Amino acid sequence: MLVPIRLLIADNHPPMREGLSALLEKQPDFQVVALAKNGPEAIAQYQQHRPDILLMDIRMPEMEGTDIVVTLRNQFPQARIIILTIHDGDEDIYQALRAGACGYLLKHVPCQELFEAIRRVHAGQKYVMSSVAQKLTERFSDSELTDREMEVLQLMVQGKSNRTISEELCIVEGTVKFHVRNILEKLGASDRTQAVTIALKRGLARL
Question: In 42, 54, 88, 143, which residue has its Cα 20 to 30 A from 179's Cα atom?
Fold first, then answer.
């Protein structure tokens, strides 16, 4: 007798949750046991149903996707979580996999590849679609920002001036300018606006 792979779907968009559930239920070896619309609900549903696979967006209301992964992996070390999202920033991908996600797929993934990814992760493998793997490779080929540069970048994204950044971080304005120059160089940006755009696209900072 075929034992189905039990799935929990967590996504804040009802059409996506329901459409994905209907699609997966058509496969004889899949069974959707629960749906969740936000982070706390995803954790509660996981605790209640103990699914084989959690299929989850990286951006969730009330709780970040990576925090959900960390929370569940701490409680259930064998938890198998696949990220299914539209967000393909290299930092999002890196942080999700670092947190313990077993797979990372984009929502335009072909149905058959999605099914195959679920089956592979259930079998104990990891699955990252090729375009996502390429983004991850590019991330490691670039110069990484230091922790202080990340702090400065986040304040840049918030529209803070060098003077305001220096006051908030308790460093002199000249040091802020030094960090900004390094950030522009490492991101390949010609000015602050382009640096902010690149940072948001890659998931290095949030609005």
Answer: 88
The arrangement of strands across the sheet holding 53-56 comes to 30-36, 5-10, 53-56, 81-85, 103-106, 127-128
| Residues whose CB falls within 8 Å of the CB of residue 174, separated by 6 or more in sequence, listed in order | none
Q: What is the DSSP string of 33-84?
A: EEEESSHHHHHHHHHHH--SEEEE-SS-TTS-HHHHHHHHHHH-TT--EEEE
CB of 80 within 8 A of CB of 102?
A: yes
Q: Is the dihedral of CA 77, 78, 79, 85 positive or negative?
A: positive
φ, ψ of residue 182 to 5 degrees: the values are: -65, -40
Distance CA 7, CA 63 (A): 20
Tell me how far apart the alpha carbons of residues 19 and 32 are, in angstroms, rounded to a whole number.
12
More confident call, 121 vs 92: 121
pLDDT in tens, 100-118: 999 999 999 999 999 999 9
Give alpha helix (H) positions in the chain: 14-25, 39-49, 65-75, 90-99, 111-122, 130-141, 147-157, 162-169, 173-187, 192-202
pLDDT digits (tens, 9 = 90+) for 143-167: 688 889 999 999 999 999 999 999 9
Alpha carbons within 13 angstroms on the beta-carbon side of residue 32 total 18
